[in-house]
Amino acid sequence: VINAWARSREKGAAQRAEAILEHMEQLHQQGHEDIRPNVISYSAVINAWAKSRENGAAQRAEAILNHMLKLHESGREECRPSVRSFNTVIDAWARSRDNGAPKRAEALLEKMETLYSQGYEDVRPNVISYSAVINAWAKSREKGAAQRAEAILNHMLKLHESGREGCCPNRKSFTAVIAAWARSRDKNAYEHAKRVFGQMQEMGQAAEPNVMTYTSLINVLAVSFVPDKAEKAFNMLLEMDTMAAKENRNVAPDVFTYGAVMKACARTSGNQESKRKALRVALGVFDKLRRTPH
Question: How far is Cα 175 from Cα 189, in angstroms, rounded to an integer?
């Protein structure tokens, strides 16, 4: 029944799932040994809150996780949280618009690492854990968000290089960091994003860039103060076209890519000649988009 409510998109589903869990706990305390909530029961309710769009969802999900930890510390082995339990709560914070959400997500990641170092093998952070926290920072407008996202990525790279399994950054990890730099107002954002893109390329097939990666990089360029950024953005678009023609369809430009190049044109400043060049690029992009089959 809990799983049914957890999968439901009906308003109030998470509250109903949690109410059933609380009823199970009460019955167990009254001596019904056959009704004993376990990690599956608690994780289903955490998942229900994580998927809900209700206010305070992430707080409720984390509160249930903390309750699980207390039960396990009291001797309830069947309530031992798993990496999935933690990842679901981290993802809830990543989806949250609450102030301080990225910090709460990162605090949970640090808790996982602490527990793992203490012998809790079941909560060893994996690529999903780290990427969810990166995503939380990438969506944030907080000062220093892009720096935090990149710091976590670099931590993953060090763990991977040290031989730690399950920590190899993937395409989503790198792309989220590049997107974070696009949202930052750092004057050196494009240089940071290019460095991350270079690290990504060094990973080979483990983190091969796709259209979202390139589009994010163009977006960073678009909001930068790099000279001739309109031409540079257009050249990246042409490069994507060339790679797509060589059967790498994952980098085929889409409408968002064209929009990012147009943004680079619109945001070009400087003298009249620079603006004229940007206008010519914009007209070329528009014509190319018009001729591109969709």
Answer: 14
Assigned token pair, 260:
């990012």
Alpha-carbon span 6 to 19, nearest angstrom: 12
Separation CA 168–CA 159 (nearest Å): 8
Contact 39, 81 (CB under 8 A): yes
Which of 28-42, 109-123, 132-146, 249-263 is least confident? 28-42
**pLDDT tier for residue 6 given thresholds of 50, 70 and 90:** low
Secondary structure, 3-state, 114-177: HHHHCCCHHHCCCHHHHHHHHHHHHHCCCCCHHHHHHHHHHHHHHHHHCCCCCCCCCHHHHHHH
pLDDT at 136 over 90: yes
**What average pLDDT does the structure give for the chain?**
91
Angle between the N-to-C axes of helices 57-73 and 39-51, in degrees from 0 to 180, rounded to the nearest 10: 170
147: buried, middle or exposed (CB in 10 Å: 19+, 13-18, 0-12)? middle
The rounded distance, in Å, linking the Cα atoms of 116 and 103 is 20
- 292 pLDDT above the threshold of 80: no
DSSP-assigned letter for residue 191? H
Average pLDDT, stretch 71-99? 91
User: Which pLDDT value is given to residue 14?
Assistant: 84
pTM given for the model: 0.86
- For tokens 């997107």, the residue is 179
Report the first-to-last Cα separation within the chain, whole angstroms. 45
Cα gap 104→142, rounded to integer Å: 13
